[in-house]
Amino acid sequence: MLDEQSRNLRVFAWDLYNYGRGIIMRRTTVLLIGCLFLFVLVQAGGGAPKKQEVTIQLTEFAFKPNKITLTKGVPAELKLSNKGSVTHEFMVYAPPKAGMSMEDVEKWAEDQSYFKDLEVTVEGAGIEVVGKGIFEVEIEAGKSAEIKFTPTKAGTFEIGCHLPGHYEAGMKGTLVVK
């Protein structure tokens, strides 16, 4: 009887040992899977954005959306689509001073272009331009173009179409770079 009790006690101890090992193994496995999940999540999308994409429609006589926010230092792609029935242009520049004439505003927009000293690529609408000194993108009705650049200057800038009568009709907006 003592041998049987001793044997039962050993079997019980062995079962308890294996039960404990099983719990530890399950907890370790769950912990490892959790860590792996977090690692994948951070690598996939938890880090800094790799590219900013904004689609902008040009119509009579508006930009939709008329306010765009970008992050400084993160590559940006502005996808311009002229949904209107006439040609429009897209310009980004420092806001003009109050009381300027239309002629002065147009000159100001060229001189104060956001893209002036940036490496910019413009593709589409039958054009492909890469370089510095780009100050406007003109898009015919029904056409599209894409502007690729990395914002380097933070601040608030104006977007405008300076074809005759368009700006005066309200075709302007805001670009904010944070």
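(ticket continues) Second input and output from the same batch:
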Amino acid sequence: MKNSPLAPAFRAQVAIKCVAIVGALLAGVAQADSPQRVTPLPKYQQECVACHVAYPPGMLPAASWKRIMGSLDKHFGTDASLDEASVREISGWLQTHAGTYKRVSEEPPQDRITRSQWFVRKHREVDPQIWKQAAVKSAANCAACHTAADKGSFRESEIQFPKGLDARFRRGWPD
């Protein structure tokens, strides 16, 4: 095959297949480092959405969810106590679907998603004053900017300048 006229074409086919295989493997690695969408637990939706976005369970490691669910009477300054059956059901679901990929391998300070390294990195270009504006209220109010946060999607293409946000913050805004 060394002297065959097909050799360059054959080598090109092999190279293309190798590139495709490596690409597929790398895509799998990339997916393993991002949260997987899971079907929301109706009880989780019912109880948690009453006060905030039902954060995807993959945004925190299991240990953080365990502490959060074990201290609902002091849930970030609010008493969010639930009956024992609801706590068991929601806790089990959160533990099953908690983040296990690289970006949530570290438990964030005070188990706050907004203090996790990945959150801070993803929002480093956001002026800290934006979090204090009435249209946003806090960094935990994902739905203020992420239009599909209620569906567990936080794609940059779905970010929108919040209505009522002071226009001085518009420079550099993607929409």
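Agent notes: Residues 14-34 have pLDDT under 50 and may be disordered. The radius of gyration is 22 Å. Closing as not reproducible unless the customer responds.
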